[in-house]
């Protein structure tokens, strides 16, 4: 019987029409626009080949944005997963406070990043901010730095803010993974005399491998798209020291360089696709190995 | 006291301190939103010497908050409506059909989970279609960008609805449309609720989309109104914080009530993948 069923295609039409028109079509046309001189002052858009892409190599700020975006993605991904996993392991110990702590740690994830940017601007204020107040109160005056206006430090302040914002998400995914492990397996290992570290390495970690995969993939992709936090905390400054792809695109969009900023967006698109696919295939392969 | 109990107490203490690191920044905005501008400039956690509720009155009057609220509510509810119908129809066919074109379309949707939006060509497209700066245009943008996630979750959920149900209904002579709308759609309700909550949160919190797509200040969403308000009143933290509290409190209240739904929804897409 089930072979005879022929589900009509029209169920897919509304979703496909909207998706193809408002997501896929702009993406495809961005490849074309990236090859044009499209600009606020230009009446007729003309094809200029790879000029926009060639220009990118001569723009120091773009190369800086590329370096910053990649470094931020790597550091945020590592820290988010390290802290997320540690929190999940702690909460998985079935403490009395687990439900409420879980909710608190996840909370930054539901607040808009823009607001978090303003909150941390206040926290990191060099004279009055709570961070420096606490450091001074603890006698660590030398650590009470100019968090957002020192070009050497501002980038790391952004990373810290972003890690504060996203750690809860990784924690929730790890916690869900940990809860799928039957407690009997852990108990057997305990009876066999396996210590915590050895249980973690040989049992827990391999069993939460799918959660590791998905967490790494999502953190890398999301941090490559970072925007609001940088916009509010530093606007890419001081100078261009914290410029990332999305603030760079915004800057050139604001100057009316539509073709050029579209080309930069295409580069971001390829970086995300390549890194996303690479991370996925590496981690998937390892999942099979263990 | 044995060492196991002791290590538990240490672990709990450390976790509570860490929870403080999450909580204190939010407490900071709350207490300072009630201070006058001089007191708030100190950016500390002390309680206000006098509660300045007029900060809120001022923000509501000057910050265009009510309009922002109206716009955000309108956009998120319209997006929920279009997503629930289009995504569940698509998920129904995707999970049931074995046709190549359907599978191909599903992969195209899944790719959209990762891809960044080509925002500048989207503006051009909207202008070309005469939907730029209209509510409808923004709803279509949100629907398009949130369809991948919604279809992914709903298709996963469709697997738990037995195919025998379709067969018996069709044998009884009902049409596919009737099968979907009177049997499948109601059964999808738990997943649609989850998806809808996430859609509301995403639309409410989104800044990137409206920042590029809405130039008409009458249609600004809450995030755009915060951004513009903060740019104007940069030096007055009390007002900026009052503005922020007004905008995030609905989300926090929603989170307190629907915490389990929200966490499950955010993770359901991720884990089943």
**% residues in beta strands of chain A:** under 5%
Low-confidence stretches of chain A: none
* Number of H/I helices of chain A: 13
Return the domain count of chain B: 2
Q: Rg of chain A to the nearest angstrom? A: 24 Å
Given helix and strand content, the structural type of chain A is mainly alpha
Note the quaternary state here.
heterodimer
Question: Got a strand count of chain A?
Answer: 0
The helix/strand series of chain B, from N terminus to C terminus, equals HHHHHHHHHHHHH
Q: Quick one: overall form of chain A?
A: globular
Overall pLDDT of chain B, averaged? 89
CATH hierarchy: architecture of the largest domain in chain B: Orthogonal Bundle
Tally of individual helices of chain B: 13
Describe it for me?
The complex is a heterodimer of chains A (290) and B (273). Chain A has a single domain (63-289), classed as MetI-like (MetI-like fold, Orthogonal Bundle). Chain A has 290 residues and is mainly α. Chain A is globular. Chain A contains 13 helices and no strands. Chain B is mostly helical. Chain B folds into 2 domains: 3-52, no CATH class; 63-232, Orthogonal Bundle (MetI-like fold). Helix content of chain B is 78%, strand content 0%. In chain B, helix 4 (65-96) runs parallel beside helix 7, helix 4 (65-96) runs antiparallel to helix 12 and helix 10 packs antiparallel against helix 13 (237-272). Chain B is globular, with a radius of gyration of 23 Å. The model of chain B has no long low-confidence stretch (mean pLDDT 89). At the A-B interface, helix 1, helix 3, helix 4, helix 5 and helix 7 of A face helix 1, helix 4, helix 5, helix 6 and helix 7 of B.
Q: What tags apply to this protein structure?
A:
heterodimer, A: 290 residues, mainly alpha, MetI-like fold, globular, B: 273 residues, 2 domains
């Amino acid at each position: 019987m089930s072979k005879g069923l022929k589900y009509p295609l029209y169920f897919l039409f509304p979703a496909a029409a909207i998706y193809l028109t408002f997501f896929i079509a702009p993406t495809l046309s961005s490849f074309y626009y990236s090859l044009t001189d499209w600009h606020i002052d230009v009446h007729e858009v003309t094809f200029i080949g790879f000029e926009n892409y060639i220009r990118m190599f001569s723009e120091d700020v773009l190369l800086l944005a590329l370096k910053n975006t990649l470094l931020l993605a790597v550091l945020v991904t590592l820290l988010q997963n390290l802290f997320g996993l540690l929190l999940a392991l702690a909460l998985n110990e079935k403490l009395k406070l687990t439900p409420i702590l879980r909710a608190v740690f996840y909370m930054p994830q539901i607040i808009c990043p823009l607001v978090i940017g303003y909150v941390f601007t206040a926290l990191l204020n060099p004279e009055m901010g709570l961070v420096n107040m606490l450091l001074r109160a603890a006698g660590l005056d030398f650590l009470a730095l100019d968090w957002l206006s020192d070009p050497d430090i501002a980038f790391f302040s952004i990373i810290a803010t972003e890690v504060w914002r996203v750690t809860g998400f990784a924690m929730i995914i790890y916690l869900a993974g940990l809860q799928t492990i039957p407690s009997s397996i852990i108990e057997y290992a305990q009876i066999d005399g396996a210590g915590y570290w050895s249980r973690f390495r040989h049992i827990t970690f391999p069993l939460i491998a799918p959660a590791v995969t998905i967490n790494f993939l999502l953190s890398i992709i999301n941090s490559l798209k970072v925007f609001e936090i940088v916009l509010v905390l530093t606007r890419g400054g001081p100078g261009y020291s914290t410029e990332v792809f999305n603030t760079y695109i915004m800057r050139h969009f604001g100057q009316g360089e539509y073709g050029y900023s579209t080309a930069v967006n295409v580069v971001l698109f390829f970086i995300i696709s390549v890194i996303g696919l690479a991370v996925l295939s590496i981690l998937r392969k390892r999942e099979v190995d263990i | 006291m044995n060492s196991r109990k002791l290590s538990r107490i240490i672990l709990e203490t450390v976790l509570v301190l860490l929870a403080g690191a999450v909580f204190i920044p939010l407490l900071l905005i709350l207490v300072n939103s009630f201070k006058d501008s001089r007191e708030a400039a100190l950016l500390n956690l002390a309680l206000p010497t006098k509660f300045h509720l007029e900060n809120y009155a001022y923000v509501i009057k000057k910050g265009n908050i009510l309009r922002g609220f109206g716009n955000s509510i309108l956009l998120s509810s319209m997006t929920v409506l279009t997503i629930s119908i289009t995504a569940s129809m698509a998920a129904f066919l995707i999970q049931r059909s074995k046709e190549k074109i359907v599978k191909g379309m599903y992969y195209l949707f899944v790719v959209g989970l990762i891809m960044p939006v080509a925002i500048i060509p989207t503006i051009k497209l909207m202008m070309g279609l005469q939907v730029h700066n209209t509510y409808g245009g923004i709803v279509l943008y949100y629907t398009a960008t949130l369809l991948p996630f919604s279809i992914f979750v709903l298709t996963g959920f469709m697997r738990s609805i037995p195919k025998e149900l379709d067969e018996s209904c069709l044998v009884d002579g009902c049409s596919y449309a009737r099968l979907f709308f009177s049997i499948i759609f109601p059964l999808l309700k738990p997943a649609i609720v989850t998806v809808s909550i996430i859609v509301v949160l995403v639309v409410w919190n989104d800044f990137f989309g409206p920042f590029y797509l809405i130039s008409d200040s009458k249609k600004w969403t809450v995030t755009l109104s915060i951004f513009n308000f903060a740019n104007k009143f940069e030096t007055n933290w009390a007002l900026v914080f009052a503005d922020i509290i007004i905008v995030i409190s609905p989300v926090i209240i929603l989170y307190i009530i629907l915490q389990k739904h929200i966490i499950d929804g955010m993770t359901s897409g991720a884990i089943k993948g």
